[in-house]
Amino acid sequence: MLEIWRKTKIGLAIAVATLTCPCHLVLILPLVLSVTAGTSIGTVISRSPLVFILLSLALFLGSLFLTFRWLSGKKDRITSCNRVDVRSVARRPVIQINKLLTGKVNPLRKS
What we know:
Elements: H1 2-19, H2 25-35, H3 40-47, H4 49-72, H5 77-81, H6 86-102
Helix pairs in contact: 1-4, 2-3, 3-4
């Protein structure tokens, strides 16, 4: 199931990167203008196409980054952080303070 989700994410990111590629804007911009004709968003795009071009460039770069990241197989930081045992991390400072108070550890020595 996870492999299907991974392939779907990569496929969607590639599709978005392909559609928002700057070389395809010659075809996409008139298409978007004709679809949104008569609406307020169509008016905004027709008056300032540079904003549309910059937004599509940002979307292209973001989807390209995600595609390569997901293809490299690196784990997300959130999923790797979920595997940390919070109780053991929370006890570490308490154990170190107890060792200092009981004199079992030298605070000047690097551990």
